[in-house]
Write a structure and sequence with these properties.
The protein contains eight helices and seven strands. It has about 290 residues and is α/β, with parallel strands linked by helices. The radius of gyration is 19 Å and the shape is globular. Strands 3-2-1-4-5-6-7 form a seven-stranded parallel beta sheet, sandwiched between helices. About 50% of the residues lie in helices and about 10% in strands. The chain binds nicotinamide-adenine-dinucleotide. The site of nicotinamide-adenine-dinucleotide has 30 residues, from α1.
Length: about 290
């Protein structure tokens, strides 16, 4: 997709972080943008700020894990702007960090996969038929993660491997159809956002019963991981990378090379039939 002026973008998770930056970058390129987020106050503020700069945007409170909510987002976007050309399935949460996979509750699985994986499925199911129908050039950006291309080490990483796999299948489906719709699997490394504070948006019905020990472990993990984000890449830099990827119709979009040795390590282990050395892991202190 080369022409952005007057086209329409939908961005989920647009109330903050990378989604907020994508919405702004698209608007600056002359697009009309529908911002979707479950966090209403942040969404309203983002919409207000963009409108103050003279951009044509709407905000729709949307829980991406709900297919009905996604349909409502589509209806409101089409009512306001008529068509959709770019879809960023970007909303995500850090999800379950409290322990092993077998200690996770059904609510942990439902929340983590509901937002990170089903949110992308719902976006694809809702918007791709419309994009195929109008037939104009379009693009879908699914926010995976660098954790999608290395050995996964938690539930979050499992969801991101699934998002990458989904994107590769979607890419092939659209190429087979000869559709003028590109697909990008965005794999950010470490970006300065509030990603490890996703619990703020965890729905009441998916919260676990109080368990102080478990909560303490989760809080320690979130604090440790949040400290990695300081001084990391800014969301606006990722937005620039995304614009370029859309223009170039690039499927694999990695934001940096700091994780290359881990990508290679995983591939080498698989090819050699060798078990992973668990001490080989991302070291933020060694970031280039
Ligand atoms: N920050 C990083 O280092 C990093 C690295 C790799 C991938 N990512 C991915 O980038 C994406 C954007 O995250 P971010 O880093 O900007 O964090 P962020 O927390 O700033 O933004 C995520 C947004 O998603 C929204 N959201 C959460 N649950 C939702 C739901 N059910 N429905 C709709 N919106 C919901 C939040 O309100 C928030 O505005 C996520 O998919 C995340 O997994 C982040």
């Amino acid at each position: 997709m080369q022409e952005f002026t007057g086209r329409v973008a939908v961005v989920t998770g647009a109330g903050s972080g990378m989604g907020r930056a994508f919405a702004q970058r698209f608007a600056e390129a002359g697009m009309r943008v529908a911002l979707a987020d479950v966090e209403e106050a942040a969404l309203d503020q983002a919409v207000e700020e963009l409108r103050e700069r003279g951009h044509d945007v709407i905000g729709v409170r949307t829980d991406v894990s709900s297919a009905d909510a996604m349909r409502e987002l589509a209806e409101q976007t089409l009512e306001a702007f008529g068509k959709v050309h770019v879809l960023c399935n970007n909303a995500g949460v850090e999800g379950y960090l409290e322990g092993t996979l077998w200690e996770a509750t059904p609510k942990d699985w439902a929340w983590t996969f509901g937002v990170n994986f089903w949110g992308v499925v719902n976006g694809v199911q809702t918007f791709v038929p419309h994009m195929l129908e109008h037939g104009e050039p379009g693009h879908i950006v699914n926010t995976a993660s660098m954790t999608a291309v290395i050995r996964p080490n938690n539930m979050y990483a499992i969801t991101k491997h699934a998002v990458l796999a989904l994107s590769e299948v979607l890419y092939a489906n659209l190429r087979d159809r000869g559709a003028p719709i590109g697909v990008s699997a965005l794999c950010p490394g470490i970006v300065n956002t509030r990603i490890y504070r996703g619990e703020r948006n965890r729905p009441a019905e998916l919260r676990n019963d109080p368990d102080p020990d478990r909560e303490q472990i989760g809080e320690a993990q979130r604090t440790r991981l949040t400290s990695y984000l300081e001084g990391s890449m800014e969301p606006s830099e990722v937005a620039e990378i995304v614009m370029q990827a859309i223009r170039e119709q690039r499927l694999y979009v990695l934001t940096d090379t700091d994780w290359n040795h881990l990508i290679e390590d995983r591939q080498a282990n698989i090819l050699a039939g060798r078990n992973p050395d668990l001490s080989v892991r991302f070291n933020p202190a060694a970031r280039g």
